[in-house]
Amino acid sequence: MTKKSEDQVVDVVLIGAGIMSATLGVFLKQLQPDWNIEILERLDEVAAESSAAWNNAGTGHAALCELNYTPQKEDGSVDCSKAFKINEQFEVSKQFWAYLVEHDLIKPDFIKPVPHMSFVRGAEDIAYLKKRHEALTQHELFKGMQYSEDHAVLKQWFPLMMEDRDPTEEVAATKMDLGTDVNFGALAWSMIQYLFSRDRSILKLAQDVKDIDRSKDDKYWEVKVKNLTTDVTRIIKAKFVFIGAGGGALHLLEKSDIPEAKGYGGFPVSGQWLRCTNPEVIERHHAKVYGKAAVGAPPMSVPHLDSRMINGEKELLFGPYAGFSTKFLKNGSYMDLPTSIKFGNIVPMLQAGIHNLSLTKYLIQQVRLSPEEKLEVLKEFYPDAKMEDWELAIAGQRVQVIKKNAEGDGVLEFGTELVSAADGSIAALLGASPGASTAVSVMLELLKKCFPEQMSSASWQSKIREMIPSFGRELGNNPDLLHEMRKWYSGVLKLDTAETV
Q1: Which of 125, 149, 162, 476 could form an S-S bond across to 172 if both were Cys, CB 3.0 to 4.6 Å?
Q2: CB-CB contact of 136 with 145 (8 Å)
């Protein structure tokens, strides 16, 4: 029989102990230190789902190498608008992290410098990459990006990938030395350690949120939580609730019954890596090299040969290979997808399915790939790859957002979506990539939507500018400010040293 404890009252409840909740928690603790914050995590450890190092690319998405952020339009030109936006957002993230490191609130060991490169094969894709380079380098944010089709130059950039490659093969690449590798799991854990080392902040693990309801007096959200260790159920009354539970956010948002949540659905996509087990091979590659996604592939499935630093060890990954599971979380239930289907979202979900048959076909093809076929995909990047040097590793689970567009049709969205109640008392983050890298900008957007009065106050404005010196200004239009910020945070985060992944 489930036991029940006394109700509690807090200012803020953060559901999910990943990078999103950690970022929002740190913001609120800095801006309003007298608020009570409680973080609830279903698992028995912090940042073990989407934020965990083995469950995401850790690229520090800045659109330096990810070709899916710069699509080619029908007229042949390259649309760089999303790349500019994402790069600006990552610049903001690095400023916020540098502030925390500079004030000894977190350690800088979660981030390392590593070149970001894009790699293509064949005349058509080479023409696209050249146009992309020309378009991006006209913008201040991307000055310094190099381009080459010369095999000799590319051998210097990524020798492992050029070894024994056909010398007549048409290939091209871009290289940006400003790239980073980020262990978002380590960053989230460091942030949460800071939070629960302060007064008025509590972290509770093994907490399963069963329901979220409005209190009868409409003053609070009543969060019903079951302790999975003690079997005790309690009600937390919160003035504000943030649902940052990754793939689990949709189910919890539905429980709130806010009108703004109506019509949203989710489509889960799983993934796998090939993880290199040969130290000699790992040591010969020092870059994050992204290729072009297959037709119909979701953004999280853009192939890349990826140098990582995880738990103090250098790693080399290739993938991800997409798959399909009805789970919304890696540690979720196979009933997650079926139980997420409600009367209000079934039509948008069916419409999105009909409009994305190419994605369905792609996922089926990926699921059916044999180990040998997976190796053949790797050989497009690394011709000398041998099966005995690689093992399969399971990546994280992502849930792509399904929503209604302006015409009322259900569409599949590749990105993140912030959903909040009209009164700003509850908010949830849905979706996936570029997610973690843009967490700081996403949480600033949340603060504007959910705390408009405080955000307009002189105290909050002053504190945010202290944490993010460029706040309110576009770095791409302010070259002097951009270079000043890059010099500052590179020094604090140790990105200007010879130590790289």
Answers
A1: 149
A2: yes
Backbone angles phi, psi at 75, to 5 degrees: -85, 5
Query: Is the Cβ–Cβ distance between 330 and 56 less than 8 Å?
Result: no
DSSP code for 408: S
**pLDDT in tens for each of the 501 residues of the chain?**
445 555 689 999 999 999 999 999 999 999 999 999 999 999 999 988 888 888 877 777 899 999 989 999 999 999 999 999 999 999 999 999 999 999 999 999 999 999 999 999 999 999 999 999 999 999 999 999 999 999 999 999 999 999 999 999 999 999 999 999 999 999 999 999 999 888 888 999 999 999 999 999 989 999 999 999 999 999 999 999 999 988 888 889 999 999 998 888 877 777 888 999 999 999 999 999 999 876 555 555 688 999 999 988 999 999 888 777 787 777 788 787 787 877 677 776 677 666 666 666 666 677 677 888 889 999 999 999 999 999 988 887 777 777 776 666 676 666 788 999 999 999 999 876 667 899 999 999 999 999 999 999 999 999 999 999 999 999 999 999 999 999 999 999 999 865 556
Instruction: State the total domains in the chain.
Output: 1
The residue among 371, 273, 387, 375 whose CA lies nearest residue 320 is 273
Query: What are the angstrom distances between the C-alpha of 103 and each of 198, 237, 466, 467?
Result: 14, 33, 11, 10
Other beta carbons less than 10 A from residue 174's beta carbon: 25
Q: Please indicate, yes or no, if residue 430 is contained in any of the structural domains.
A: no
Question: Is position 91 within any domain?
Answer: no
* Token pair belonging to 292: 């072009």
Q: Which two tokens stand for residue 152?
A: 């000799």
- Tokens found for residue 395: 């990546």
Q: Bridge partners of 101? A: none
Question: Do 322 and 398 meet the contact criterion of CB atoms below 8 Å apart?
Answer: no
Give the global pTM.
0.91
Other beta carbons less than 10 A from residue 134's beta carbon: 11
In a domain, 405, yes or no: yes
DSSP per position, 236-301: EEEEEEEE--GGGHHHHHHHHT-GGGTT-EEEEEEEEEEEE--HHHHTT--SEEE-PPPTT--GGG
Q: Under a CB-based contact definition with an 8 Å cutoff, are residues 322 and 271 in contact?
A: yes
Residue type present at position 440? V
Which string of DSSP letters, residue by residue, matches 329-397? Answer: STTS-TTHHHHH--TTTHHHHHHHHHHTHHHHHHHHHHHT--HHHHHHHHHTT-TT--GGGEEEEE---
> Is residue 368 in a domain?
yes
- Report how far Cα 250 is from the mean position of its chain's Cα atoms: 17
Task: For residue 359, give its domain range.
Answer: 265-414
